[in-house]
Amino acid sequence: MRPFPPAPGGCRRVLIVDDEPRMRDMLSRAVAEMGFDAAASGSAESALRALEQNPADIVLLDLNLPGMGGMDFFHLLRKKWAQTQVIILTGFGDLTAAQQAIRLEAVDFLAKPCPLGQLEQALERARQRRAAVAPPIVLPDPPEEAAPIPAAPQDSELLEDVERNHILAALERHGGNRAAAAAELGISLRKLYYRLEKYQREGRQSGS
Questions:
Q1: Superfamily for the 159-201 domain
Q2: CA distances from 42 to 5, 20, 67, 85, 184 (A)
Q3: What are the residue ranges spanned by the domains of the chain?
Q4: In this structure, which of 79, 99, 144, 184 has its CB flanked by the most CB atoms within 10 Å?
Q5: What is the pTM of this model?
Q6: Contact at 8 Å (CB) between 60 and 48?
């Protein structure tokens, strides 16, 4: 892995973690063309070593990795580099992974192949969140059993919608009690309010 070059403007250092060489090269070129400084690792283990030497502002993370899986890597990254922002990029829809990504404050959850416009928007959101220097995230202990989840979506469903449906389903199960829904999801009440306000602005929330 090459070291990050100087990054004018700050919060533009992106580490791409993907085991597919062609995908790493494509993402590295695309991220650089979007005005970010890109470095890449082919495994979670090499990414951890890279972060020890050159902490990144943003990590673009594939979940399906050899050795240590992407979600295990995400947990370690969140504990040690709490302010690093993470964008999940994966080739399959997984509600369990989406639920964990919500708890770990992922910026976005994008499906491969991802339109470059969506990737650019996700990177900009991650840059803005990193620039805000959010306080470290305290992780709750993972539940022994996963909460009930709705039926798996069709392959064409956007994984952003998976997160939305998961949140709204939890809210419905608790009769609109937001505190109870947030507790089930393992997120803060503030985070739940933020998500619901976002859905309402986009006209995608049903009910109150």
A1: Homeodomain-like (1.10.10.60)
A2: 20, 7, 11, 19, 34
A3: 13-131, 159-201
A4: 99
A5: 0.60
A6: no
